[in-house]
Amino acid sequence: MAMEATQTLANFAAAFSYEGLPDRVRDHCKNLLLDALACAIAGRLGEETGQVAAFAAALAQGGESSIIGGDVLSLAGATLLNAYLVTAVTMCDVYRPTLTHITPEVVPPALAVAERDGLSGRALLTAVAVGCEVTTRIGLGLDYSKFRARGWHGPGVIGPFGAAAAVGSLLGFDADTMARAFGLAGSQAAGTFAAWGTPTVKFHQCRGALSGLMAALLAQQQFVATREFLTAKDGGLYAAYADGGNPNAAVAELDSRWELEQIALRLWPSASLIQGMVTALFDILERTQIEFGQVRKVRIALSPEAHRMHGGFGAYRAKFEALLSAHYTAAVLLHDRALTLAQFAPSRYDDPRLRRFAAEQVEVRPETSLDGSQAIVDIDTADGGTFSARCKHPLGAYENPLTRAQIAQKFRTYAQGILPDTTIADVIGAVDQLEDFASTRKLMAMLRAAPQTASQAMAAAE
Predict the structure, then answer these.
(1) Helix ranges restricted to H, 45-174
(2) CA–CA separation, 334 and 290 (whole Å)
(3) How far apart are CA 462 and CA 459, in angstroms?
(4) What pLDDT score was predicted for residue 61?
(5) In b/e form, how buried is each residue of 154-163, taking b as 16+ CB within 10 angstroms?
(6) CB 356: neighbour CB atoms within 10 A?
(7) Which portions of the chain are predicted below pLDDT 50?
(8) Which residues contact 221 (CB under 8 A, 6 or more apart)?
């Protein structure tokens, strides 16, 4: 009889070592790590970052763990705040089959424990790989359409498992302890789309990271928990969240195929499902000399899912809704011919001309022939011309990946003014050569900003 899914994944996570990482998987994990660091540095500019920093500082007293671009906090506080920083400004990774951001849950607790225990770069890289693979595979077994129909939001539900797997890998768990960590992670799995359109969806990510950390630390104390959480008939993840799911999908080809390679990255801020639209718009700008004043109408077709989530923000409020808005993103991209966090500053999204253009000249419609983040863009000009582009695979997808150089530039863009230029280069080089690091503490020391309190660091970013 085949082993139960929870225990199969626990065996994998406990037994896996650095030597088993294929070169391409190792390189993608470095990309995921460097991208998470870039997002976390940028996250200092998040609207709610100061609030979360204060909450994290109040959560537990201590100073053993580094804040990316900040100072130090407790193990729990640093995990929570770093996880929030990664997701704060809507530019982190996404595993599109379950619309789940993976690195906010996996990377921060792994960094915190690896720093605390002085573990090697190889141990960190292995933990990131294990955590990302467990998260994606548990999501793959969910039967996402049924999971989503019940209103569940992936990061807070499946993220704790990946965080627990990463920490368990660093702590040297055996399979039995890892399975109990998964049981404790599942007992904290929560988060629904009732939070959509509010910053609480980002809290799902950082709470998922903390939940996984707590699960692993409690399992380390031999706390008793179910070792079959995924498939338990009464309240197991797949039974309770998705009418039984498909546990076989979670473990299929576990020894030969890496699901984490499907994790997509984002070069630009704005929602994951409109990255195809952004890719198409930049394609048009690269092929033409069209000026903003020449544009009469922008017609955007999105998948029904993307339209449902991002087609209703023709009139948006502040930064968070602007980041979700297909209308505003198209307007400011065409006007500025760029898309960084500078395009989501109040001076941009409150510009009356851009607000009017987004509401009146950008048309967003659903198109059933499109799926996920695919998009079709048509731009009609005042002289009667039309420029068009279709995006099947957005930049950053598995089929259209970012290069390490592009991710490094993303880190440079947002680290300038926070870290010295030499340190920025050192961090990029450290991730590139992570397997040569004897201790993760060296990397985390680089990532801390000039000595100051966490609250001061966050206030300086506002």
Answers:
(1) 49-59, 75-87, 103-116, 121-140, 144-149, 154-170
(2) 9
(3) 5
(4) 82
(5) bbbbbbbbbb
(6) 11
(7) 1, 451-462
(8) none
Using one digit for the tens of pLDDT, what is the confidence trace for 328-382?
999 999 999 999 999 999 999 999 999 999 999 999 999 999 999 999 999 999 9
**Alpha carbons 87 and 105: distance in angstroms, whole number:** 10
Judge if 125 and 214 occupy the same domain.
Answer: yes
Bridge partners (DSSP) listed for residue 391: 375
Query: 């804040």: which residue's tokens?
Result: 67
Distances (CA, A) of 265 to 260, 340, 371, 424: 12, 15, 18, 20
Q: Last residue of a domain, which of 334, 357, 391?
A: 391
Q: Are residues 115 and 56 in the same domain?
A: yes
- Do residue 118 and residue 15 come from a single domain? yes
For 399-436, letters b (16+ CB in 10 Å) and e give eebbebeebbebbbebbeebbeeebbebbbebbeebbe
Q: 155: which 2 tokens?
A: 């990061």
pLDDT for the residue numbered 449 = 83
Mapping DSSP onto H, E and C, the string for 20-31 reads HCCHHHHHHHHH
Same domain, 329 and 205: no
Q: pTM of the prediction?
A: 0.94
Report how far residue 339's alpha carbon sits from residue 148's, in angstroms, rounded to the nearest whole number. Answer: 30
Instruction: Please report the sign of the dihedral spanned by the C-alpha atoms of residue 424, residue 425, residue 431, residue 434.
Output: negative
Separation CA 45–CA 319 (nearest Å): 10
Please indicate, yes or no, whether residues 336 and 370 belong to a single structural domain of this protein: yes
pLDDT digits (tens, 9 = 90+) for 147-180: 999 999 999 999 999 999 999 999 999 999 999 9
pLDDT at 62: 87
Pair 216, 182: CB distance under 8 Å:
no
Give the span between the Cα atoms of 85 and 52, in whole angstroms: 9
Return the pLDDT at 419: 95
What mean pLDDT is reported for the chain? 95
d(Cα 138, Cα 251) in Å, to the nearest integer? 8
- The structure tokens listed for 321 are 């809704």
DSSP 66-102: E-TTS-EE-HHHHHHHHHHHHHTTS-S-BBGGGTB--
